[in-house]
Amino acid sequence: MQPAKTTLARFSPIEKSLRTVRAANLWDYEAMCRHFSWDQLRADLFDRSDDKMNIAMVAIDGHAKLTPNKPAVRFVDAEFTRTELTYGELLRSANRFANLLRLVAIEPGAVVASLLGRCPELYSTVLGTLKCGAIFAPLFAAFGPEPIRSRLELAGARVLVTTQHLYERKVAPIRSTLPTLRHIFIVREVAEGELPHGTQDLTQAMSGLSETFETVPLSADTPALLHFTSGTTGKPKGVVHVHDAIVAHHASARLALDLHPQDVFWCTADPGWVTGISYGVLAPLSCGVTLLVDREELDVERWYRLLAENEVNVWYTAPTAIRMLMKAGLEPVKRHTYPALRLIASVGEPLNPEAVMWGMGAFGMPVHDTWWQTETGAIMIANFLSQTVWPGAMGRPMPGVHAEIGRRRDDGTVEILAPNEVGEIVLRPGWPSMFSGYLNNEQRYQESFTNGWYFSGDQAYRDEHGYFWFIGRTDDVIKSSGHLISPFEVECALNLHPAVMQSAVIGLPDPVAGQVVQAIVELRPDYAGDDELRRSIMAHARRSLGAAIAPRGIDFVVSLPRTRSGKIMRRLLRVRALGLPEGDLSTLEPSA
Ligand code: ATP
Ligand code: MG
C-alpha cells in the first residue's frame, strides 16, 4: 500500500559541509556498507585465539590499561560541582564489586538487578556484574513497589543494588514475596545509622576486597543483559542480550554517534532503560570517551549550561526532551555558545521535522534521528553525521545491518516491498546485539521471526534515496476508507496549530470507513478547549492533510498518557475511548 502522505517531507534536505564529512568516522556511507564486517570488528575488539569475550573487556579493561588516568565518567550535581571517575578508578571499583559477587557465591548466569539513579555505584555494578559472567538487569528508579516486584520475580534476581531511600519506600514492602532475592546491597545516602534488616552496606561489603579481578572470558552467545521494554503497547517484555552485543554497541557509537576517544559525550536517558545502559554506559566507554552524567532532572537552563560548560561534543537525547527545550524558545539557548558540539542525536519516538529544524536554529545543526528498540539492542537506522538529513526521516541502516520494508504473506513467506510502499521494518538476523530471547516467553520470541526476518512491529516506508520514514507502530496505524494513515503524520500536522501543545491520533472502529481518525489534544496553557477551537484545529488539519486524513473528532485532555520513558500510549487512549480494560499500566507516567 502506498502511504497516503506527503506532508512530512516539507523541508529541503540538509547537506553537510565538506569539513564535517571529512572529520567523521563514517564519511562514505556506501563504501562503509560494502566493506563493513562484524567478524572483522569482533576480531579487532577482542583479538583472542579462543573466540571468548566479555563486554567488560571492551568497555573497561582495555581503556583502564591504556589510559588509567583519563576521566571515564564526570558527574555533575545540583550545584554544578563536578566529580570524576577515571578509567583506572572505575576498573578498580568494578573489580571489587565482581569480587563481592564471587564472595557471596553468585554464579555466572545469575541475575544482578539495580534500582539506582545516576550514581557512581551504578557504573561499577554494571561492569562488575558483567566481569564475573552474571546478567545485569536495570530497573527504573521511579517505579512503584509492584512493577519492581514483578520484574525482580520474572528475572529471578539473586542480587539487588539500590539506595537506602529506594529500599525503604519500594523494596521493603515486597521483600518477603521474593524468596530468590538473596542479597540486597545498599548505597547509603547518609553515612550514619542502622540499615534495614536483611540488607548490607555496599561500601562496607566491598571494603577490603581485592581491586583486581580477571574478567571471565565467555562465549559470544552468553547472556549479559536483561532489559524491560517501555510497555507502550502492552505488558513490558523482558529482553535478553548476549555479550556479543558490545560489538554492535561499539560500531554504532563510532559510526552513528561518531564517538572519538577525546570526546565528551552526554546521553540523557535514564539508566533504568536500554538506552541508558547501551549508550549511557557500555557503548561510549567502549570508545574511551568521557561520559557526562547529570544527577538532576531535565531543566532547560541547566541543560544548556551543562552542554556549554562541559564542552559536550556529542549529545544523545529524546524527542520529549527536545520538545520541552523547543517550548522554552531560543532565548535560553542563545545565552551560551557551543563550539565543541558536533552532533545532536535523538531516539525513542518519532522526531517531527520541526524538531530537526529547531536544531538548526538553536545550534546550527540538525537533530539526527536514530531508530532502534530494546529488542535490537543497538542503533539500527540512523542519520549519520556526514550524510544529508531529510527532516522527518529516521535515516538509513547502520553498516552491517540489513533492514528492509517487509510484509508477511499468508503462505508464511515474506515479501520485501519496493520504495515508497508501506510495510513493517524487518531486519535480517545476524547483527550482534539482536535479542536472544524474551524472558519466559519463547513463543513470542519465535513469533517475531518469519522466514528468516525479524519483524519489528513498526510501520515505515523507504524512499528512493534509501531513507526510512516512520509511519506508526503496527498497532497504531489507521486504515480508513482504503487509506493507510500515519498517526505520526497527522500528529505532526496538528502540532503546528498554535493552540496545540501535543497530540495523539488513534483509529476508532467505524461501520462504513473501517476506522476513523480521532485526535486527542493537549492544549497550550492559554487556550480553552471549546467548540470554536475544535473547529479551528479541524480546519487547519483539513487544509494541511486533506479531508480524507484529517481527524473526524477531537478530544481535549489535560495531559496525554505517556510511559515513564516519554512515549505516548496510544493503546491506552484507544481502550479508554472504547471503554475496554486498561491492561498493564506499570510504566504509565503518574500524571496521566
Ligand atoms: P513495548 O515494546 O513494551 O510496547 P516500546 O516498544 O515503546 O514498548 P522500546 O523498546 O523502549 O519499548 O521502544 C522501541 C520503540 O520506540 C520502537 O519500536 C519504536 O516504535 C519507537 N521508536 C524508537 N525510536 C524511534 C524513532 N526514531 N522514530 C520512531 N519511533 C521510534
Ligand atoms: Mg516494543
Short description:
With 592 residues, the protein is an alpha/beta fold.
How would you characterize the overall build of this protein?
By secondary structure, the chain is α/β, with parallel strands linked by helices. The protein has a domain at 478-578: ANL, C-terminal domain (GMP Synthetase, Chain A, domain 3, 2-Layer Sandwich). It has 18 helices and 28 strands. The strands form six sheets. The chain has a nine-stranded mixed β-sheet. It is globular and about 70 Å long.
> What structural category do the secondary elements indicate?
alpha/beta
Mean pLDDT: 95
Cofactors and ligands present? adenosine-5'-triphosphate, magnesium ion
Number of strands: 28
- Share of helix, binned: 25-40%
Strand order of the largest sheet: 2-1-11-10-12-13-14-15-16
Q: Which radius of gyration do the C-alpha atoms yield?
A: 24 Å
**Main sheet properties:** 9 strands, mixed
Determine the strand fraction and express it as a percent band. Answer: 15-25%
Report, as a whole number of angstroms, the end-to-end distance. Answer: 35 Å
CATH superfamily of the domain at 478-578: ANL, C-terminal domain
- CATH C-level class of the domain at 478-578: Alpha Beta
Q: Give the overall silhouette.
A: globular
How many helix segments? 18
**Low-confidence regions:** none
CATH T-level fold name of the domain at 478-578: GMP Synthetase, Chain A, domain 3
Q: Provide the CATH architecture of the domain at 478-578.
A: 2-Layer Sandwich
